[in-house]
Amino acid sequence: MGNLNKKTVENLDVKGKKVLVRCDFNVKMENGVITSDKRVVAALPTIKYLIENGAKLILCSHLGRPKGEFNPEFSMKPVAECLSKYLGREVKLASDVVGESAQALAADLKEGEVMLLENVRFEPGETKNCPELSKKFAALADLYVSDAFGSVHRAHASTAGVAAYLPSAVGFLIQKELEVMGGALENPVRPLVAVLGGAKVSDKIGVIENLIEKCDTIIIGGGMAYTFFKALGKEVGTSICEYDKLDLARDLMAKAREKGVNFLIPVDNVIGKEYKEDTLFMRIYSDSIPDGWMGLDIGKTTQELFSKSIQGAGTVIWNGPMGVSEWENFAAGTTAVAQAIADSGAISIIGGGDSAAAIKKLGFADKMTHISTGGGASLEFLEGKELPGIACISEK
Ligand code: ADP
Ligand code: MG
User: Fold this and answer.
1) How far apart are the CA of 359 and the centre of ligand 2, in A?
2) Spatial contact of 389 and 151, defined as CB atoms under 8 Å apart
3) Could you tell me which of 347, 373, 332 has the C-alpha nearest to residue 45?
């Protein structure tokens, strides 16, 4: 993997150059108003660096899922206003993506000025990675910088195609993702411990397979644990369990044994009567779930078992909550594991959308080394897949 060898903005000579920057401005909106501008804030370091170094900036992003045609509901106008506020200067919004308005504004740019293209998904060629559209993006600029980590698993014209026609580099946001996550996978501080949870084994097969090759310990919690329970002949009651994945679960455990990987699953559980927030619940001192009950969190002994493994870790990669952490009665396992990671002093990396949300909600965000900004992209990264939006960037 050449992930650690990609050019970064600091390797480019940007003075006086028009730089097309693919950002992730896919902000949360309600009735035309931005309800969280975190993604805009996350993009600022790269943008400010380029301004300070005399580049002419052409920013672009998608927003929502317009269907390849102009739709005012998905206009970048609120993003342009938000950016203007943070940068303390006007960010002009083109009225099209690569048309006359975009071309005229780009031709007029002076050093340190910033413009924003309309929603790239107004162009039908965007999601089809159409070469004609990629060439039109390239014609606007001299250089291309990719900083939308949340979109690098998609081969679209503005995330991948355009890089074939311009010298390219990654921005600071992607650089950090590559350094921290890439570093943990390619050259980890050991022991490397993976904590995997969430609802389903089938969502995480690729992640488990890739991590078995690299980890010293794999910890399994959350709903997916019950498929492993069943595969080992234990009772699972009405727990979420993928009966068509039992052979796979057995294969994964055999592989771990073969590789000498420590493979931990829960030894006690918190169970509920029904899948709802205020259901009757209790802790059982057993790794067998009684009839008519479902496992909704790991138990206290398991918390201690998992925490002990985490204490000695050099690096922890975490994806997937240990239980239904959205509900207070079933959040203790996830909280305990988050606490153990925070106390461990290990390099800690959180991947996955729901995992990142859980960590933030439970108040551990600033205790982690790195919370990936891309849900789907971080999972594919942990699977060891080649990400088109990174593969296309020039090497140093
Ligand atoms: P991520 O988005 O971080 O990859 P997932 O989507 O795989 O994480 O998993 C998160 C979901 O798993 C949460 O909605 C959580 O409620 C659910 N979950 C965790 N444990 C259980 C369980 N024991 N039974 C049912 N659902 C669970
Ligand atoms: Mg999820």
Assistant:
1) 13
2) yes
3) 373
Q: What is the pTM of this model?
A: 0.88
pLDDT digits (tens, 9 = 90+) for 251-301: 999 999 999 999 999 999 999 999 999 999 999 998 999 999 999 999 999
Give the active site residues.
Answer: 39, 200, 353, 376
The domain limits of the chain are: 3-175, 188-382
CA atoms of 59 and 23, how far apart (whole Å): 7
Please count the other Cβ atoms lying within 10 Å of the Cβ belonging to residue 119.
27
| Domain 3-175 CATH class label | alpha beta
HEC letters along 45-110: HHHHHHHHCCCEEEEECCCCCCCCCCCHHHCCHHHHHHHHHHHCCCEEECCCCCCHHHHHHHHHCC
3-state helix, strand, coil split of the chain in percent (to 5) is 40, 20, 40
Protein residues whose CB sits closer than 6 Å to any atom of ligand 1:
197-199, 203, 222-223, 240, 295-296, 319-321, 323-324, 326, 352-355, 375, 379
pLDDT band at 225 (very low <50, low <70, confident <90, very high): very high
Amino acid at site 230: K
- Residues within 5 Å of ion ligand 2 by Cβ? 353-354
* Residue 191 preceded by cis peptide, ω within 30: yes
Contact between 331 and 298 under an 8 Å Cβ cutoff? The reply is no
Q: Tokens for 55?
A: 């580049």
- Write out the CATH class of domain 188-382: alpha beta
Per-residue pLDDT of 364-380, as tens digits, reads 999 999 998 888 899 99
Q: Distances from the Cα of 50 to the Cαs of 11, 97, 98, 156, 357, in angstroms?
A: 12, 21, 21, 24, 30
